[in-house]
Amino acid sequence: MSLSTQDIERIAHLARIRVTPADVTDVQSKLDGIFKLIDEMQAVDTKGVEPMSHGLDMVLRLRDDAVTEINEREKFQKNAPQAEAGYFLVPKVIE
Amino acid sequence: MSWNTFATVAETVKALDAKQISAVELATHYLDRADALQPTLNAYITLDRELTLAEANAADAKRALGAAAPLLGVPIAHKDIYLIDGWRTTCGSKMLENFVAPYTSTVVKNMADAGMVTLGKLNMDEFAMGSSNETSYFGTVKNPWDVSRVPGGSSGGSAAAVAAGLAPASTGTDTGGSIRQPAMFCNLTGLKPTYGVCSRYGIIAFASSLDQAGPFAQTAEDCALLLGAMAGFDPHDATSLDRPKEDYTRDLAKPLAGLRIGLPKEFFGDGVGAGIAKAVEEALTVYRKLGATTVEISLPNVKYSVPAYYVVAPAEASSNLSRFDGARYGHRASQYDDLLDMYKRSRAEGFGAEVKRRILIGTYVLSHGYYDAYYLQAGKLRRLIAEDFKRAYEVCDVVMGPTAPETAFQFGSKTDDPVKMYLNDIFTICANLTGQPALSHPCGTDEHGQHVGMQIIGNYLDEARMLNVAHQFQLATDWHKRHPSI
Q1: Pick from A25, A81, B89, B396: most CB atoms within 10 A?
Q2: A40 touching B (Cβ < 8 Å)
Q3: Distance of alpha carbon A82 from its chain centroid, rounded?
Q4: Is there a catalytic annotation at residue B94?
Q5: Is B460 on the interface with A (CB under 8 A)?
Q6: Average pLDDT, whole number, for chain B?
């Protein structure tokens, strides 16, 4: 499999990463090399194999639906690039 | 007082108990050494003498009151992926250059509860993506044995710091070999526990189904002490194993007579450096002298570990790293047209090339129409690899082989070809895919004088036995007692 320039632009958009036209060729060639490696696994017949996501096949726990965390908004917002009156500031999205 | 900077954790505990040294004196000693060697090694990203000495003073005060915590006053340095309340936590990225953690990860909290004092935050590959510490935004870490060579990665700072005597022990994380490979490159013992033994809460996520925290130290005995402090059930981590605490030192003294060592023929092929093969063979001779027997096994699907990993890890990373949006925390571009452009530029500027590559791969394999061919197929391969190991444990107790196919390499020798870099993790990745515990211990040097590691892969939750095996080897050998002259 090899990726086209359009593929790179599409996934870069989906990933919300700006890739400049100057970078596309380099990204494309590196990703092609990586997909060549990845595609080795397509050789294995895995029909009927149950996929594994956890080594011990554990079942996720449930917890009581109770409030356990305290509000630390001010502390958390200290790391925000722009915050005001408890809100995160972002560019205007509604005209 | 003068202090042996290469004292083990066990020796440090004894010295503290005997009042030969205080926590403040210890912290000061290691901070001074860290400062002195920072220009040479670049092992740390953040040192904060005030914060460290406050913890050390508190430890001494507790001791004066007769408090008993097992590792009270012992210093430890943490990989800069662990959140610690009030400490800058960067994950080796420009994205988090100015991020100050608002809470503390469970592993660090557990170690603090055991009395350990935080020395600082260690350098690492950006978001733990790398095998050489060359992707860090804060510059490469040098291998203290040979500063022209890499320390390994992603926990490169963690390995370099302990190897150079800047800290008696450190924490790392291991998603595809990031503890074991640097442990080999820097002549240390490093352990990746069973998935779920150490809480992932407060560790910046890379690939959530693979990430696991573990210790770096000079000896297996120290790793047993450290794991005892790190491990434990944590309700904050959905995949944390709910089980009682263990004493990982309990079996250290057991003789190895009767131990069955499985040697996968796939780990002893052409790809392994001649010097590595020789050192591993000599180490196996030691194991046989100690009473162990070896049996050849086969793990036929292990050769698909790297391809499967480069689907699973990027897929999970692309999802985890979507939280860096330039809005709530992290880097925000200074100029942008609108919200979408703000996301795209902030992420383009904040992430380095390797991190962006992996996000793009992950985004692609999870995009519409590709899930079955990639993520699902990789999940099925994980099952097949796990079944290979299950069969192996019918005839052996532990699996052994070289930790990496190559010893510490020169800076820049793999940076232009990501695939070449990825293949350095060819023997370590399988234990992450299956969730099994694995460690690396020193076992010799190759023809360039570079260090070779023996990897021990164990069955689920068999850490105590693996540490026993490595400890017995270390009682019979002195590779782990060698230190760089730096």
Answers
A1: B89
A2: yes
A3: 23
A4: no
A5: yes
A6: 97
